[in-house]
Write a structure and sequence with these properties.
Layout lengths: L2 H19 L11 H11 L10 E5 L5 H8 L5 E6 L2 H10 L6 E5 L7 E6 L11 H17 L1 E11 L13 E2 L1 H11 L3 E5 L6 E7 L1
Parallel strand pairs: 1-2, 1-4, 2-3, 4-5, 5-6
Antiparallel strand pairs: 5-8, 7-8
Length: about 210
């Protein structure tokens, strides 16, 4: 399956979500702000020790990560990237006039930054078969690796989730498989976080 064939349905899926729920966690298919911000805390560990880092936020939605950074008083040079045009439009409206922040409609960043982040973009696979979706994940991680100087971080739903709560349109990744992939393909410095109370995990890859 080619990237456009895969990404177009996803763009439509998320365009529908924000049309229904607006600029809320539900508008990007999360349950609530508490879990959303907890995810951001894990992802931003990749930027520990960096003062005012440049950040590429792949799958930025309406720019909730930028809200998080501002609320925590963390300075950053921020780029939000999303394939859904309504998400980018909402983000630009929400953060109009904010310094050191811009948003683009694209599948990859248009610059190299200190760190790259991807929150939730590997969860909804719709009808894509497991292995085709895994190949898409690897291709996207390649992009994060290529466009990040200090490292990148991403999260996935975990294959250790309760079977009776799994949905067929979601992808539940094997954390050990992705940890091994990241160690062998990108860096020797990889951390697996699977202890923060959600049915998911975060991988931190330091370049």
């Amino acid at each position: 399956m080619t990237a456009p064939d895969l990404l177009a349905p996803l763009a439509g899926y998320y365009a529908d979500k924000i049309a229904r729920h607006g600029q809320t966690p539900q508008g990007v298919d999360w349950n609530g702000e508490q879990g959303q911000w907890l995810r951001f805390e894990q992802l931003l560990r990749v930027a520990d020790g960096l003062a005012a880092p440049s950040i590429n936020d792949l799958g930025c939605g309406y720019g909730a990560l930028l809200d998080f950074l501002v609320a925590r008083g963390r300075e950053a040079d921020y780029l939000g990237v999303d394939v859904a045009a309504p998400m980018v439009a909402a983000a630009r409206e929400r953060h109009a006039g904010r310094a050191n922040a811009r948003f683009i409609e694209a599948a990859r960043p248009d610059r190299v930054a200190d760190v790259g982040l991807a929150s939730g973009i590997f969860s909804v696979r719709l009808n894509t078969p497991d292995e085709a979706w895994f190949e898409h994940i690897v291709a996207t991680l390649d992009v994060l690796h290529e466009t990040s100087r200090a490292g990148f971080a991403f999260n996935c739903l975990t294959s250790y989730s309760d079977a009776d709560k799994m949905r067929p349109d979601l992808y539940y990744a094997d954390p050990c498989r992705l940890f091994d992939l990241c160690k062998r393909r990108y860096s020797r410095q990889v951390a697996l976080l699977h202890d923060y109370g959600l049915w998911e995990f975060t991988l931190i890859v330091r370049q």
